[in-house]
Amino acid sequence: MTDVSRANPTRGLAAGLGISSSVGTADGPENAALDQFRAAIAEAGLTPPEFITTNGKLHRFSSDGRRCDKAGWYVFHTGDIPAGAFGCWRGGVSETWRADIGRELTADEIAAHKRKMTDAKRKQEEEKKKNRAKARTRAAKIWESAAAAPADHAYLAKKGIGPHGLRIHCGELVVPLRDSAGVLHSLQFIAADGAKNYLFRGRVSGCHFMIGEPNGALCIVEGYATGASIFESTGHAVAIGFNAGNLPPVAKDLRAMFPDLRFVICADDDVKTLGNPGMKYAREAAQAVDGFLAVPDFGGDRPERVSDFNDLRRSAGLEAVRACIERAAPFERSADAGPEDEDADDLDADKEIARLASLRPVDYEQIRREAAAKLSIRASILDKLVVAARSPDKSAPGKGRPLELPAPEPWPEPVNGAALVLELTDAILKYVVLTEDDALAVAMWILHAYCFDAFACTPRLAITAPEKRCGKTTLLDVIGLLVPRPLSTANISAAATFRTIEAARPTLLIDEADTFLSENEELRGILNSGHRKGGQVIRTVGDDFEVRAFSTHTPVAIAQIGKLPDTLADRSIRISMKRRAPGETVSRLRHGRTPKLSEVAMKAARWVADNADAIRECDPNIPDAIFNRAADNWAPLFAVAEVAGSAVAAQARHVALAVCGVEEEPSLGATLLADIRSVFEEKGCDRMTSADLVAELVAMADRPWCECNRGKALTQNQLARRLKPFGIGPKTVRADGGRLKGYELDAFSDLFARYIPSFQSVTPRQMHEVNDLGENRTVTRAPDVTVKNQPKQLISFGCHGVTDQTTQDRYLRENSAVADGMSDRNDAAEFEL
Q: What is the pTM of this model?
């Protein structure tokens, strides 16, 4: 029989969220066509996108491997004959593509294909016009409502420049993009850390931002910081083109407006980027408008990671910038100017590999794929050649390698929160066997990892199973592909843990914890302290023993066989896994072939980035049944759920109640208090001697007291030692006409209330039929007789009065009805995929 829940694992969840499950997978007959498409992109000298969206719409991607780059674009059409197009506005690449289906197309198929492509192009152009019109309207509203940018904005302060007409919106600088007629088409947003984004689907090509009034000379540059530096050093008007590929069209448009003006094209000297696009397009622009070419001169001792005139301003001052602009000469193509586009055949492979080997690892990683394409070799082969060039001395191997903690690039379009939760849950259930409740809890934990600093605590994700081969490692691997900065390890020292957290704030994924964690008290302490914001450890460093604080606050997921140590379990969202049963099917996780997971991760990054303020300010509604540390653990997940939508929040509450409903195993101390209470209740007295209390405890069946002392029974001294941490000790009591050491019931009343919740049912004591004193004992007292085959209590999460099966069923039905009702009240359009 087909397992319906596995065939469509999130059907129930989708219904609860009020949306339809239409999440696709990367598996299917179009895989061969996708591989061909990626190969064609690589052959054109571009870095192919990790995944291809096959909806026939225009999508942008990083054409040079850099995460912040979006110069590449593609369109992919499915069908009997998959086809598409791709290109790069920076590199001037634009190509069409059609899949090789293993045979020649007939004349009718060719004609039908051309008609299909023509129709698709027409629809694409129509959609582009509509989107650009919407972007213009949106840009005008934002620009009109934005205030003037302050001069002390963090980005301006870092670059050492002024605002020059910029505005500010939601903490980010806003730069307008206008055409030569002055029409506002789009906006550029610059964050405090320098991250740059454009208004979604707004026009960039041919648009610019002007600083100053053109009079005598006009400088054309790529970025705002470069333009501001040149304007402040020379006083010349500056036109900012926003990227290298946009310099030629901007220069041509402005030349039509100012035919007699002196144009100075100010290049970015991208020596560390393959092909040096900054110089390439600056030369092209200068040639097109009969302009002058200015290049930043950093001298013989050129600093690392410098390329533009703002770098020159910060390293050498305004005078150095002014001198370069004044030395600009009319551009003339010469033998030493270099070709516009180098082919792989023209490259000296040895020199190119040496150049790549001289780059910093992070710089090399950004261009490795494009460089490999230029050399007509695979990136993996290039990696080996570069490593060999970097390490001529093979006598000192085994020194490890730098950490690489990638963070997903945000999805280019806004993301619906409810649909994202569904996609995350579906992605998880595709590879592992979990309940929908557990999968949704994991999905919300993943989203919280993108903004964990917004919360007072970050709960640990405890992934446990009773035996091996239950999918714990696979679940960790899936999580690692969905969270930011994942760091997977099967063993890690305490020192490495806090130093890594301080340096990189990873999402720490610890596997096989049962092999080392229980015996590593220092590491447990670090993981415990990192649960709360501000958690840290204090260590001394250096020869002078300087005292330094190291942060321990970061998201952590831990997988192991058996339960976690109590202190960690108390700080965790607990996920229990089981071995896959016959008939249950999951997909095999193939590393390097999970484009769908990468896509979902990008959507998660975008959604959290767009909703960070709302998540930070959210004060979630936590059910009363979840309290104390459990409430702390679930608060971040509830905040994420509430921002995602009321239907998601309702589902989250149901999940939390279900996940918290499994009553945790009490500690040995709490068990002792519960059994002492049971003894006093059965005896019906208010005081007992130590000897009698110990005898009663030892006589209890299925309890630890008859063998808790290394296989021997509990003694009076051990009882006193176990009660001492609770502030209880033996005192003189009257018993059997004498005065002996013992305990009074009143001394325990406060402890019973604090450590034995009143909702916890007390199973009547089962005594040995004949104890070691030779006395026969009754099994129970009449009021506490246990009913045979009594229904088990499903939920015991502090909900006083929810103790019988009927009441609990009614509670769950009401809870579910609330979720369904909230889902129904939401506008259906809000959750459309």
A: 0.46
Cβ neighbors of 620 (< 8 A, separation 6 or more) are 635, 638, 639, 641, 642, 649
* 376, 380, 384, 387 alpha-carbon torsion, rounded to 10°: 100
For 106, residues 6+ apart whose C-beta sits below 8 A from its C-beta are none
Residue type, 656: A
Q: Which one has a higher pLDDT value, 32 or 152? A: 152
H-helix or E-strand spanning residue 137: helix 107-145
Contact between residue 86 and residue 97 where contact means Cβ atoms under 8 Å apart: yes
Q: Give the tokens for residue 348.
A: 């000296």
The residue assigned the tokens 């551009």 is 331
pLDDT, tens digit, for every residue of 434-466?
A: 998 999 999 999 999 999 999 999 999 999 998
What does the alpha-carbon distance between residue 277 and residue 243 come to, in Å, rounded to a whole number? 10
Mean pLDDT of 370-399: 67
May I ask the CATH class of domain 208-335? Answer: alpha beta
What is d(CA 196, CA 704) in angstroms, rounded to the nearest whole number? Answer: 63
List the chain domain ranges.
Answer: 30-103, 130-206, 208-335, 346-390, 430-579+602-661, 668-754
- Quote the CA–CA distance of 302 and 152 in Å, as a whole number: 29
Q: Between β-strands 217-221 and 262-266, what pairing exists: parallel, antiparallel or unpaired?
A: parallel
Placement of tokens 């990054």 in the chain: 605
- Given the candidates 3.40.50.300, 1.10.260.40, 2.40.30.10, 3.20.20.140, the CATH classification of the domain at 430-579+602-661 is 3.40.50.300
167-169 sheet: strands from edge to edge: 147-148, 167-169, 172-178, 184-190, 196-198
pLDDT at 368 over 80: no
Question: Is the pLDDT reported for residue 572 higher than 90?
Answer: yes
- pLDDT value for 321: 92
Burial pattern 771-782, b for ≥16 Cβ within 10 A else e, equals beeeeebeeeee
Averaged pLDDT for residues 638-661: 86
CA 204/CA 90 separation, integer angstroms: 12
